[in-house]
Amino acid sequence: MTTRAKTWAVSQAQPDASVFNRWAQVYDAQRNPLLLLEERKAVPLLPSIRGSNVLDVGCGTGRWLTHLEALHPASLIGIDSSRVMLKHARKKVLPATKLEHGHSSALPGEDVRYTLVIASFLLSYVQDLPAFALECARVVRPGGSLILSDMHPVTAAERGWKRSFHVDGTTVDIAAHSRSLPEIIAVFEKSGFEVGILIEPPFDEPERQVFEDAGKLGEYETLAGVPAIYILKLQKRRPGTPMQFPARNKALQLTNARIGAGPTTWRDGVISIDNGRIAGIHDDSDVTAQALNLQDYVLLPGLINSHEHLEFGLFPKLGRPADAPSYRSSIEWAKEIHRLHSGIIAQYRQIPKKTHLWWGAIRNLLCGVTTVCHHNPLHRELTRPDFPVRVLSRFGWSHSLAFDSDLKGNFDRTPKEYPFILHAAEGMDEESRNEVSWLDQMHVLDERTVLVHGLACSASEISLINRRGASLVVCPTSNRFLFGRTFPRKLLTVVERLALGSDSPITAAGDLLDEINYLNAQAGLSPHVIYRMVTTNPSEMFHLNDDQGRIAESGVADLIAVRGNYDTPARAVSELTVGDVEFVLLAGRAQIASPSIYARLPYDLRSGMELIEVGGYQRWIRAPLRELFASAASVLGQQKLLLAGREVRYLGTL
Asked: Which of 198-212, 230-244, 468-482 has the highest mean pLDDT?
């Protein structure tokens, strides 16, 4: 393998057999890291073929035939377009192994003869792929396997890889076709096959020596974690068997990433995910299982947003300009915006609520939030199994003292095992300052109570909240926008049960990461405290029992992947930006993937994802984005939306 910096040139010509005749002279003498990687990864995928008929298409000098012979097939045939390649193969293989000169367009053997057909590094040289797929469908028996491998098309194009070899002091280029994995899979599915396994492995230590011997160790380092090849194992569908689609929460391994084991500790290992949960954290991977290589990334638990109003997902900020006097209370703000901004509010309310809810969820998902406490009635859209984030439902709630005449009744009717959430002390006036005491006098301030905002609280109110075992959720940038101030660090550090929320785009700076950034850069809160505010603290406050906020065996597989080298998981969380969040899993299902992660993601786990650009970052998202854009644009009259202050553009689908 050699590389060039320029874009990979794609030829539509069928390579001439004479090229392979020349290659045969040096094929076995020149070590190739692609072939070494393929053999390591493909051997465990071979089915049992003892007593069965097997065909190797494009067998070359017999590299795979010797592996297959050791598995004791009833018959083994290798075909190749190069007679010289076959001549070299004959020196290696057993006399019983049959070698034939032939082409992919006309495979030897009667119909449904073979249990296994293998085509190693062949598809790039096949001109008529549909014809080859039909021939494979003809000769493979129902339930039989077809194993295909080749250079990874995305990496080959990005890195400028070409097909070539060196002989007699010259470099010989080989004409090749470039096809995407979706295109290849679609062709074979149309011919009666279904995907069994697709792996896209990168080079690893066994290939390192090949690069080092060739003086290309630097190239090896730049390819860390990048898919070098693909290996696709297909099964021939049995007659009458409907086409199978991947399960929503298909088993998956996450390999080569550092794993956040709490706020201070990293650990190495492989996370195996099955049926939406973390089945185990192991030292070694299972080579036969579907895997996602996350080298150069760290894994963190999905974040928990403890206060959100999802239905305002697309709304702009509503309030006074920065140079105007601050509000004294949330009541004053609420009355004023309905008087001064009624036109804007009416326009945005024309967008269907479910569209707002989805955009509100996507706003959270983009910053690594997998669990949201939505402080409003539970709309049925939030309970859909394909909704982008996990929305809490097991809690009682009230808006606030000012807007709920039956707050005490709502509290008493809430099941004793549920938390109870309400806005409180949201302002700077005397009435806001007294609300915590009033709640205590009403006997609604106890270990179940979750107060949101609490801005008017002094040290004495914080002490009362702690004594009662209640919890506090702060939303710093929302408070600063409305009231010109937020909690000082000295008060935040004495709250015993503390969590973080993003409120809504109507008042907040953007999303949960903007709140984290404020606490880290402006308030000077320690990374350890910030980490707990968006992970384990809310998990305890909301009585979550699936290990949300942690990476734990048997816990739910809500995870985010971030590229970088951080000294602790807490530091990683406290420094996160939207551009850093490249991969989000919800119950083991890929919800967001950067282009880099998307290229590594097993093909069948990409289905249903659509591409958008957010603030200059491209992200694949599992959501009906085309419909969501159209729904919003029909009201706003624009194709570009603003989400958390960032421009969002629709780019397409898989």
From this structure: 468-482
CA angle (514, 519, 523) in 5-degree steps:
135
Beta bridge partners of residue 374, listed in sequence order: 308
Residues near 114 by beta carbon (within 8 Å), at least 6 away in sequence: 52, 53, 54, 55, 139, 140, 141, 144
Indicate if 151 and 64 belong to the same structural domain. yes
Round to whole Å and give the CA distance between 116 and 53. 7
Does residue 588 form part of some domain?
no
Q: How does DSSP assign 353-389, residue by residue? A: HHHHHHHHHHHHHTTTEEEEEE-S---GGGG-TT-SS
Q: Letter for the amino acid at 9?
A: A
Tokens of 217: 């160790």
CB count, 10 Å around CB of 322? 8
HSE, CB side, 13 Å, CA atoms: give it for residue 352.
12
pLDDT category, 129, cuts 50, 70, 90?
very high
Distance CA 227, CA 293 (A): 8
One-letter amino acid of 529: V
Q: Where are the alpha helices (DSSP H) in 503-586?
A: 512-517, 527-533, 536-541, 569-574
Q: Summarize pLDDT for 357-409 with one digit per residue, the tens.
A: 999 999 999 999 999 999 988 888 998 889 999 999 999 999 988 888 899 99
Tokens of 471: 């919890």
- Is the model's pLDDT at 490 over the cut of 70? yes
Euclidean distance between CA atoms 141 and 53, whole angstroms: 10
Domain membership of residue 594 (yes or no) is no
As a residue count, the chain comes to 654
Strand pairing partners for 195?
234
pTM of the model: 0.68
Contact assessment for residue 653 and residue 626, using Cβ atoms and an 8 Å cutoff: yes
- The CATH code of the domain that includes 459 is 3.20.20.140
| CA-angle at 124, arms to 12 and 167, nearest 5° | 95
Residues 156 and 215 reside in one and the same domain? yes
pLDDT digits (tens, 9 = 90+) for 57-109: 999 889 899 999 999 999 999 999 888 889 989 999 999 999 999 888 889 99
What is the Cα–Cα distance from 20 to 23, expressed in whole angstroms?
Answer: 5
Nearest to 647 by CA among 614, 609, 619, 602: 614
Amino acid at 447: E
Considering the domain boundaries, does residue 503 fall inside one? yes
Residue 559 covered by a domain: no
Q: Which of 371, 430, 375 is nearest to 400 (CA)?
A: 375
Locus of tokens 């644009």: 633
Structural domain ending residue among the three candidates 244, 266, 295: 295
pLDDT at site 20: 67
